[in-house]
Amino acid sequence: MDAFALSFAYGILNVRKKLALITSIIVGIFHFIMPLLGNLFGNYIFENVSISPKYVMFIVFFILSINMFLSFFEKDKRLINLNVIGVILFAFSVSLDSFSVGLGLSYLSDNIILSSLIFCIISATITNLGFVLGKKISDKYGKYPSLIGSIILFLYSIHLIF
Question: Tens of pLDDT along 144-160?
Fold first, then answer.
C-alpha cells in the first residue's frame, strides 16, 4: 500500500513513463530482497535497530506532502526527475515493512523464494499502477489532485507517527 500511495503521488507530479517503470522494477526487487533479509536475520535485527520503519515512512510522506503542496502553486507543470539515489530511497522506504514480513515468512510458507517472488511481482505491478493512475488523474483534473494528494499524504504521515 505504501508503494501504491507514493507512486500515485509521484504520478500526479508527472513522472516520466520510463522512470516510473524503472522505479516500479526496483521497488519489486526490494520487495523480493527485504523479506529474504528479514527471514535471514530474524528477530535479532529488530532488537538492535533504534528506528522504526513507521518513522522513516513518516519522514518520506511528510516531505512529499509539503513538496506536492508547494507544487500546486507553481505556474508550469514540470516533470519530476528522480535521480538514482532518489529511486533507491523511494524503493527502500516503501519496502521497509516487507523486511518485517520476512521475519515470520518461514512460519507461513515452506518456499521462501517463491513467496518473495510473488511479493516482488505484485508490489512492482501495484507501484506501476500507482504511477499510471496518478498521471491519468493529473492529466484529467490538472493541479487539483496535487493539492488533495498533499493533504492526504500529510494526514497519512501524521497517522503513521501516532
Answer: 777 777 787 788 788 87
Report the SS3 class of residue 15.
Answer: strand
Instruction: Write the single-letter amino acid at 16.
Output: R
Contact 24, 117 (CB under 8 A): no
Of the CA atoms within 13 Å of residue 58, those in its CB half-sphere come to 10
CB 93 within 8 A of CB 31: no
Q: For residue range 70-126, what is the model confidence (pLDDT) as tens digits?
A: 766 766 555 455 788 888 888 888 887 787 677 667 666 778 889 889 989 999 999
pTM: 0.67
Q: How many helices (H) and strands (E) does the chain have?
A: 7, 0
For residue 52, count CB atoms less than 10 angstroms from its CB and return exposed for 0-12, middle for 13-18, buried for 19 or more: middle
Q: In angstroms, what is the C-alpha Rg of the chain?
A: 16
Q: Quick one: which of 115, 130, 154, 91 has its CA closest to 36? A: 115
